[in-house]
């Protein structure tokens, strides 16, 4: 991500998650597979930055819930998936809320029929049809890139390292300086 234009601070969740530096933020997201998916997000020094806990998925409901928590276990975001025959979307709410007034962003597939996965992200205050962020997948390389809107302005890169029977699945993440890395983590844990 060298030679990228310097962005002003882009706080989606909170300015405290925007590293005011000239260097990108590197994170590792480790996914645990049990009855409930859970994730641990660490920095390059192996310090826990975030954890994500998931609800037990049931066939009775079309909703799945994940909670992004800070290193102390305090809920930052409630991520709720809505899965129907015509829609697969996630909404992010502040804290543990599900109230419409607490929506921060919505993540949707750009279309249901796709050769390459492309996700559109709309911030809560967006009153247009244009997305605020785009996630483009290269599934053959198990990688994703996050761009501002439909531009070429790259703000994050994600590379998945598949787990084996004895190792866990990991996402290696690089977030541009001044970009909200909690927001990028929230997007990544909605990828499955």
TrEMBL record:
Gene3D superfamilies: LURP1-related (2.40.160.200). InterPro entries: LOR, LOR_sf, Tubby-like_C. It holds the Pfam family LOR. PANTHER family: PROTEIN LURP-ONE-RELATED 1-RELATED (PTHR31087:SF160), PTHR31087. Belongs to the LOR family. This is Protein LURP-one-related 15.
């Amino acid at each position: 991500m060298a030679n990228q234009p310097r962005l002003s601070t882009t706080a989606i969740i909170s300015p405290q998650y925007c590293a005011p530096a000239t260097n990108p933020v590197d994170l590792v997201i480790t996914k645990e597979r049990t009855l409930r998916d859970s994730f641990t997000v660490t920095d390059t020094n192996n310090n826990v930055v975030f954890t994500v806990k998931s609800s037990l998925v049931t066939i009775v409901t079309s909703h799945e819930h994940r909670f992004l928590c800070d290193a102390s276990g305090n809920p930052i975001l409630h991520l709720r998936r809505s899965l129907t025959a015509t829609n697969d979307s996630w909404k992010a709410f502040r804290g543990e809320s599900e109230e419409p007034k607490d929506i921060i962003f919505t993540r949707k597939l750009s279309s249901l029929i796709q050769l390459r996965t492309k996700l559109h992200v709309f911030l809560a205050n967006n009153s247009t049809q244009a997305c605020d962020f785009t996630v483009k997948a290269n599934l053959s390389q198990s990688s994703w890139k996050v761009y501002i809107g439909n531009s070429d302005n790259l703000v994050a890169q994600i590379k998945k390292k598949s787990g084996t029977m004895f190792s866990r699945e990991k996402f290696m993440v690089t977030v541009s300086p001044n970009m909200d890395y909690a927001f990028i983590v929230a997007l990544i844990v909605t990828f499955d």
